Amino acid sequence: MKITWIIIALLSGAFQPIQAGLNTRLGKAVESPVHASLISFIVGALSIFLYSILTKQYVAWAGLRNAPAYVFIAGVLGAFYVTSIILAFPQIGPAMTFGFIVTGQMIMSVLLDHFNILVAQKHSVNLWKLLGIVLIVTGVAIIRKF
């Protein structure tokens, strides 16, 4: 059901500032934002590994050889994302950090949809989508000002 996925997406978004705050504190504790990111990824990888064992998840290891090399860039992008948040969070705060993150996500998502890149179905840019992005940018500007 779609409502379940909407709730999961909302929770995922709600957890990101908490994760950022915890990772920032970890970075201060270990005196290295980069190592905090590494530790966070290790804990996350172990958590996913444990989950996959407990739920008996199937992996098509043979398909890994057939996957295009560029798909592994996702890991680099994830590391960039987490480390960037650890660095930005204490400098500009959670509201600005995630305001800009959401803005970047929406701009890139609309572009990927429009140009049919990494998506199942093309969705062209229209005035309403552009207005949505403008409203997000306006919201970030308001948060920054006040």
Structural category:
mainly alpha
What is the CA-atom radius of gyration, in angstroms?
A: 18 Å
Strand content: under 5%
Total DSSP helices: 5
Q: Write down the oligomeric state.
A: single chain
| N to C succession of SSEs | HHHHH
Could you list the spans in which at least 5 consecutive residues all have pLDDT below 50?
none
Total count of strands: 0
The backbone outline, from C-alpha atoms, is: globular
Q: What is the terminal separation in angstroms?
A: 39 Å
Biggest pleated sheet = none
Rounded mean pLDDT score: 94
| Share of helix, binned | over 70%
In terms of topology, how is this protein built?
Elements: H1 2-30, H2 33-54, H3 61-66, H4 73-114, H5 127-145
Structural account:
The structure is a single chain. With 146 residues, the protein is mainly alpha-helical. It is built from 5 helices and no strands. Helix content is 81%, strand content 0%. The longest helix is centred in the middle third of the chain and has 42 residues, at 73-114. It is globular and about 45 Å long.
